[in-house]
Write a sequence for this structure.
Protein backbone atom coordinates (compact mmCIF):
# COMPACT_ATOMS: atom_id res chain seq x y z
CA UNK A 1 0.00 0.00 0.00
CA UNK A 2 1.47 3.31 -1.12
CA UNK A 3 2.24 6.06 1.37
CA UNK A 4 1.58 8.73 -1.26
CA UNK A 5 -2.07 9.35 -2.05
CA UNK A 6 -3.34 10.59 -5.40
CA UNK A 7 -6.89 10.91 -6.76
CA UNK A 8 -7.78 7.85 -8.86
CA UNK A 9 -8.85 9.92 -11.83
CA UNK A 10 -9.23 13.43 -13.19
CA UNK A 11 -10.74 14.59 -16.44
CA UNK A 12 -11.22 17.71 -18.49
CA UNK A 13 -11.98 18.82 -22.01
CA UNK A 14 -9.27 19.49 -24.60
CA UNK A 15 -7.33 22.73 -24.06
CA UNK A 16 -8.44 22.87 -20.42
CA UNK A 17 -6.30 22.44 -17.31
CA UNK A 18 -6.07 19.65 -14.77
CA UNK A 19 -4.21 19.37 -11.51
CA UNK A 20 -3.19 16.18 -9.75
CA UNK A 21 -2.45 16.17 -6.05
CA UNK A 22 -0.01 13.93 -4.21
CA UNK A 23 -0.34 13.78 -0.45
CA UNK A 24 2.38 12.38 1.76
CA UNK A 25 4.05 13.02 5.09
CA UNK A 26 6.99 14.74 6.71
CA UNK A 27 9.26 11.75 6.08
CA UNK A 28 8.72 11.68 2.32
CA UNK A 29 7.36 14.73 0.50
CA UNK A 30 8.08 16.98 3.47
CA UNK A 31 11.73 15.97 3.49
CA UNK A 32 12.66 15.23 -0.13
CA UNK A 33 12.27 16.32 -3.72
CA UNK A 34 9.26 15.09 -5.67
CA UNK A 35 9.21 13.73 -9.20
CA UNK A 36 6.30 13.07 -11.54
CA UNK A 37 6.02 10.36 -14.17
CA UNK A 38 3.69 9.85 -17.12
CA UNK A 39 2.84 6.33 -18.22
CA UNK A 40 1.08 6.00 -21.55
CA UNK A 41 -0.82 2.74 -22.06
CA UNK A 42 1.49 -0.22 -22.55
CA UNK A 43 4.70 1.78 -22.17
CA UNK A 44 7.35 2.45 -19.56
CA UNK A 45 6.95 5.47 -17.30
CA UNK A 46 8.53 8.72 -18.44
CA UNK A 47 9.96 11.44 -16.23
CA UNK A 48 7.94 14.66 -16.46
CA UNK A 49 9.06 16.67 -13.44
CA UNK A 50 11.97 16.30 -11.03
CA UNK A 51 13.17 18.26 -7.99
CA UNK A 52 9.57 19.42 -7.39
CA UNK A 53 9.31 21.73 -10.38
CA UNK A 54 12.06 21.12 -12.95
CA UNK A 55 11.32 19.78 -16.42
CA UNK A 56 13.75 17.51 -18.26
CA UNK A 57 14.78 18.54 -21.73
CA UNK A 58 11.95 17.94 -24.20
CA UNK A 59 9.09 18.16 -21.73
CA UNK A 60 6.76 21.00 -22.75
CA UNK A 61 6.03 23.82 -20.33
CA UNK A 62 2.39 22.74 -20.30
CA UNK A 63 3.53 20.46 -17.49
CA UNK A 64 4.40 22.05 -14.16
CA UNK A 65 5.09 20.87 -10.64
CA UNK A 66 4.92 22.43 -7.22
CA UNK A 67 5.31 21.39 -3.60
CA UNK A 68 4.03 22.77 -0.36
CA UNK A 69 4.68 21.09 2.96
CA UNK A 70 3.73 17.43 2.66
CA UNK A 71 1.85 17.73 -0.63
CA UNK A 72 2.81 18.14 -4.24
CA UNK A 73 0.84 19.04 -7.33
CA UNK A 74 1.23 18.36 -11.04
CA UNK A 75 -0.48 20.75 -13.41
CA UNK A 76 -1.22 20.13 -17.07
CA UNK A 77 -2.47 23.02 -19.17
CA UNK A 78 -3.70 23.00 -22.75
CA UNK A 79 -4.85 19.40 -22.33
CA UNK A 80 -4.41 17.20 -25.41
CA UNK A 81 -5.72 13.74 -26.26
CA UNK A 82 -2.13 12.55 -26.18
CA UNK A 83 -1.99 13.42 -22.47
CA UNK A 84 -4.36 10.57 -21.64
CA UNK A 85 -2.22 8.43 -19.38
CA UNK A 86 -1.53 7.39 -15.81
CA UNK A 87 0.48 9.84 -13.75
CA UNK A 88 2.53 8.97 -10.66
CA UNK A 89 4.32 11.07 -8.11
CA UNK A 90 7.41 9.70 -6.42
CA UNK A 91 9.92 10.58 -3.75
CA UNK A 92 12.31 9.09 -1.21
CA UNK A 93 10.96 8.23 2.20
CA UNK A 94 13.61 9.03 4.80
CA UNK A 95 12.01 6.92 7.54
CA UNK A 96 11.40 3.81 5.47
CA UNK A 97 14.59 4.25 3.41
CA UNK A 98 12.71 3.35 0.26
CA UNK A 99 11.57 5.17 -2.84
CA UNK A 100 7.80 5.50 -2.81
CA UNK A 101 5.40 6.10 -5.65
CA UNK A 102 1.94 7.56 -5.47
CA UNK A 103 -1.18 5.50 -6.06
CA UNK A 104 -1.47 6.85 -9.58
CA UNK A 105 -3.99 9.07 -11.35
CA UNK A 106 -5.65 8.37 -14.66
CA UNK A 107 -6.13 11.46 -16.79
CA UNK A 108 -9.00 11.38 -19.26
CA UNK A 109 -9.54 13.97 -21.96
CA UNK A 110 -13.28 14.33 -22.49
CA UNK B 1 21.51 10.19 -23.46
CA UNK B 2 21.30 6.83 -21.70
CA UNK B 3 19.50 3.90 -23.31
CA UNK B 4 18.45 0.90 -21.22
CA UNK B 5 17.56 -2.38 -22.93
CA UNK B 6 16.10 -5.21 -20.89
CA UNK B 7 15.93 -8.93 -21.51
CA UNK B 8 12.84 -10.59 -22.90
CA UNK B 9 9.66 -11.89 -21.32
CA UNK B 10 9.81 -14.92 -19.07
CA UNK B 11 7.32 -17.55 -17.95
CA UNK B 12 8.27 -19.26 -14.71
CA UNK B 13 6.92 -21.95 -12.45
CA UNK B 14 6.09 -21.10 -8.82
CA UNK B 15 9.11 -21.64 -6.60
CA UNK B 16 11.63 -21.04 -9.39
CA UNK B 17 13.88 -18.03 -10.04
CA UNK B 18 14.17 -15.38 -12.72
CA UNK B 19 17.07 -13.14 -13.69
CA UNK B 20 16.30 -9.99 -15.63
CA UNK B 21 19.08 -8.00 -17.28
CA UNK B 22 19.29 -4.31 -18.07
CA UNK B 23 22.02 -3.22 -20.49
CA UNK B 24 22.97 0.44 -20.58
CA UNK B 25 24.43 2.36 -23.48
CA UNK B 26 25.36 6.01 -23.71
CA UNK B 27 26.69 7.88 -20.73
CA UNK B 28 29.10 6.32 -18.26
CA UNK B 29 27.74 3.25 -16.48
CA UNK B 30 29.83 3.86 -13.41
CA UNK B 31 28.47 7.38 -12.98
CA UNK B 32 24.92 6.42 -12.11
CA UNK B 33 22.97 3.91 -10.08
CA UNK B 34 20.17 1.64 -11.20
CA UNK B 35 16.83 1.01 -9.57
CA UNK B 36 14.35 -1.77 -10.21
CA UNK B 37 10.63 -1.03 -10.26
CA UNK B 38 7.83 -3.48 -10.84
CA UNK B 39 4.21 -3.12 -11.88
CA UNK B 40 1.68 -5.89 -11.36
CA UNK B 41 -1.13 -6.13 -13.92
CA UNK B 42 -3.45 -3.15 -13.57
CA UNK B 43 -1.55 -1.89 -10.54
CA UNK B 44 0.79 0.96 -9.68
CA UNK B 45 4.55 1.25 -9.54
CA UNK B 46 6.55 -0.43 -6.77
CA UNK B 47 10.21 0.28 -6.08
CA UNK B 48 12.13 -2.89 -5.33
CA UNK B 49 15.63 -1.61 -4.69
CA UNK B 50 18.72 -0.16 -6.28
CA UNK B 51 22.40 -0.74 -6.92
CA UNK B 52 25.41 1.53 -7.35
CA UNK B 53 27.52 -0.35 -9.92
CA UNK B 54 30.72 1.55 -9.18
CA UNK B 55 30.56 0.52 -5.54
CA UNK B 56 28.77 -2.80 -5.89
CA UNK B 57 26.45 -1.81 -3.07
CA UNK B 58 22.73 -2.41 -3.19
CA UNK B 59 19.65 -2.09 -1.04
CA UNK B 60 16.18 -3.47 -1.40
CA UNK B 61 12.76 -3.11 0.08
CA UNK B 62 12.30 -5.22 3.18
CA UNK B 63 9.52 -7.31 1.63
CA UNK B 64 11.98 -8.58 -1.00
CA UNK B 65 14.99 -9.10 1.22
CA UNK B 66 16.11 -12.69 1.11
CA UNK B 67 14.50 -13.20 -2.28
CA UNK B 68 16.08 -10.56 -4.47
CA UNK B 69 19.70 -10.00 -5.49
CA UNK B 70 20.78 -6.94 -7.42
CA UNK B 71 24.10 -7.07 -9.24
CA UNK B 72 25.93 -5.16 -11.93
CA UNK B 73 28.75 -5.87 -14.34
CA UNK B 74 30.64 -2.67 -15.10
CA UNK B 75 32.61 -4.32 -17.89
CA UNK B 76 29.46 -4.86 -19.93
CA UNK B 77 27.37 -2.00 -18.52
CA UNK B 78 24.67 -4.43 -17.44
CA UNK B 79 22.59 -4.58 -14.26
CA UNK B 80 20.77 -7.70 -13.12
CA UNK B 81 17.78 -8.41 -10.89
CA UNK B 82 17.51 -11.97 -9.61
CA UNK B 83 14.22 -12.88 -7.88
CA UNK B 84 13.88 -16.27 -6.20
CA UNK B 85 11.06 -18.38 -4.78
CA UNK B 86 8.65 -16.93 -7.28
CA UNK B 87 4.94 -16.89 -6.53
CA UNK B 88 1.93 -15.88 -8.57
CA UNK B 89 1.93 -12.43 -6.94
CA UNK B 90 5.32 -11.76 -8.56
CA UNK B 91 3.69 -11.70 -11.99
CA UNK B 92 4.49 -8.20 -13.18
CA UNK B 93 6.39 -6.03 -15.58
CA UNK B 94 9.84 -5.33 -14.18
CA UNK B 95 11.61 -2.10 -15.13
CA UNK B 96 15.12 -0.83 -14.57
CA UNK B 97 15.65 2.93 -14.34
CA UNK B 98 18.53 5.30 -13.63
CA UNK B 99 18.74 6.81 -10.18
CA UNK B 100 18.09 9.09 -8.44
CA UNK B 101 15.32 10.69 -10.49
CA UNK B 102 14.49 7.77 -12.80
CA UNK B 103 15.17 9.87 -15.88
CA UNK B 104 15.81 6.86 -18.11
CA UNK B 105 13.81 3.63 -18.12
CA UNK B 106 14.16 0.25 -19.74
CA UNK B 107 11.31 -1.02 -21.90
CA UNK B 108 10.17 -3.44 -19.21
CA UNK B 109 10.27 -7.22 -18.88
CA UNK B 110 7.08 -9.20 -18.30
CA UNK B 111 7.57 -12.01 -15.84
CA UNK B 112 4.66 -14.43 -15.61
CA UNK B 113 4.58 -16.91 -12.74
CA UNK B 114 2.18 -19.72 -13.42
CA UNK B 115 1.96 -23.45 -13.08
Amino acid sequence: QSVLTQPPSVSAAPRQKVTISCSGSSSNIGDNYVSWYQQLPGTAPKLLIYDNNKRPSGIPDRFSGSKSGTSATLGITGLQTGDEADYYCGTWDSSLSVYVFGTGTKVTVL
Amino acid sequence: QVHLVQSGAEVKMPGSSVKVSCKASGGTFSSYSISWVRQAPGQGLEWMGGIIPSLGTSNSVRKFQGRVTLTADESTGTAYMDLRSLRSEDTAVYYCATDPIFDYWGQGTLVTVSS
Chain A has a mean pLDDT of 96.
